[in-house]
Amino acid sequence: MFLIHADVCVCMQAWWMTDTMSTDIWARWILIGGKWSYTEIPGHYPKEYLQVVQASSVLACIFCILGLFVFVAQLYTIPKGNRFLFTGVFQLLAWLCIMIAASIYTDIFHKDKEQGWYGASFILAWISVCLTFISCITYFTLRKKLA
Length: 147
What we know:
The chain is α+β, with helices and mostly antiparallel strands. It contains four helices and five strands. A five-stranded antiparallel β-sheet has the order 4-3-2-1-5. Strand 3 and strand 4 (35-39) form a beta hairpin. Helix 3 (85-108) packs antiparallel against helix 4 (120-141). The longest helix has 31 residues, at 47-77. The protein is elongated, with a radius of gyration of 19 Å. The relative contact order is 0.18. Mean pLDDT is 88; it is low at 1-5.
């Protein structure tokens, strides 16, 4: 992983943060002596749930990218007046995956912790749930222009 500035990189990818710790779904960063140090995710984290969050997040990205390629392909192949249903299906799958990842993380991790807050990546995950759902509905209702 490349770092432009360690503080910015660590804070931007955080799903959970405290003043001296930043955790994402892949690793934990600890602030020691003014520098962020990489550590493994603690062993007390439920590994099965963490793997589901990781896999769902990766699948959501894959389905979004595939949806973009399918949209471009459908733009040139479907007859005029037809809907972009196949693209909508990929967006629906992406929405389902990111919804699963964000929901599991919200329900399982950090709910009993009094100190700390959710980081930018966690918030962006929930924003992407909304935007992906809107995109899905748009593709299901969108028709190729007749003119």
